[in-house]
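Bug #77: duplicate submission created two jobs. Keeping one. Sequence:
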Amino acid sequence: MLNQDKTVHQYDTINSEIANVYHEINRKLGLSDTESLILYEVAVNEDISQKKICSLYGLSKQTIHSAVKKMINAGIFEPLTGQKNEHLTLTKKGEGIIKDKISVFVDIENRVFQSWTTAERDMFIELSNRYLNSLKEECDKL
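Kept job's structure:
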């Protein structure tokens, strides 16, 4: 059996539980996890491309492309023109989904973070960034 630090295991468990909560929210909203993250990024970042979404979430181009194609066919995004790093443009239907569903995510996240003091939020972000940067450094050593 591997000797994993108890705190690391707790952190991993919390991360898994957070992912499960987001999945449950998506299920209740009638969205796939991939559709949700694409729509979320479009909602908070008007100049987002499929390539940038792949980079942000570590998902394959095929996964994002398939989901975007499905959403174009469903009338959520305007058809793509084929330009490199093309930005995703919502249709009226897509704007309605952002308003009715993705805004739920934003509101939940805002309420959670706003329930913390400014010092707690700052500490959370600082420690999360330190962990991320250290993890990247360790990955680069492989």
